[in-house]
Fold this sequence. Notes:
The protein contains 13 helices and 14 strands. By secondary structure, the chain is α/β, with parallel strands linked by helices.
Amino acid sequence: xxxxxxxxxxxxxxxxxxxxxxxxxxxxxxxxxxxxxxxxxxxxxxxxxxxxxxxxxxxxxxxxxxxxxxxxxxxxxxxxxxxxxxxxxxxxxxxxxxxxxxxxxxxxxxxxxxxxxxxxxxxxxxxxxxxxxxxxxxxxxxxxxxxxxxxxxxxxxxxxxxxxxxxxxxxxxxxxxxxxxxxxxxxxxxxxxxxxxxxxxxxxxxxxxxxxxxxxxxxxxxxxxxxxxxxxxxxxxxxxxxxxxxxxxxxxxxxxxxxxxxxxxxxxxxxxxxxxxxxxxxxxxxxxxxxxxxxxxxxxxxxxxxxxxxxxxxxxxxxxxxxxxxxxxxxxxxxxxxxxxxxxxxxxxx
Length: 350
């Protein structure tokens, strides 16, 4: 059974996590994600879980590390400056091969910035903002429905690969309200976790750590991590295409700008103009090969993002000179304007 409900994006994410079996939430308030801890504070006790407002973002992510070490489905959420503070713990989670769910509802930066929606944390999310050679699985929703669905998917992927999953959202998606299908029939099926710290009576003790002082420990762990990342890159790339089959120019955008680009493309198609939209859903692993294939038959691509230009570097890496790649970036909490997306796409068609 399922039901339709009008939900705010942040609430949809929180309820999705509960549906997925999250019973441990640790967080610290920061706008524009405060609806998530507010909701979890009442919803988790109802579900038999635990909510803790930690004393800081650093404490929150390390509480997640503790709960994940015990095999629990745990979560923390924050907004841009808060996620910056968490980076040491994020690196530790990755090094320890611990599955968990995190969410960054981005706001304008750098620094404390503002509370407007932004996509300025792309580099931090997909390249690794903490110490060492590591990745997170990064999912980029563009609707409240996907905020819920990706919370469930994020846990499934995290447990499958023993890796932290990150939902990279923004202030608009977090605060907008839309109709959402709530999956009441979903039954979480976390895999067995024989590695978890659940007490070692009757078996050898498990050890979870990110510090190796022996000669080869870090090298061995890095090789395990890199082998895992190659598997994820082979199996888990996700993207969405809209009218790209015959497009001469393609707009590439994720999150909220992808909805703006799609609206513009729909209006341009009415005029008979051959344009389309490509939306990366997984920002890591990034859909390099599909973009390379599309680049071999289009005139050019326009990257639309709410930053000074971050994802555009991955798009150019994928395209590898097969087609021109232009950027329309709006940093600091500014929003891409439909008229400007239209003007730039039409210019590239000439």
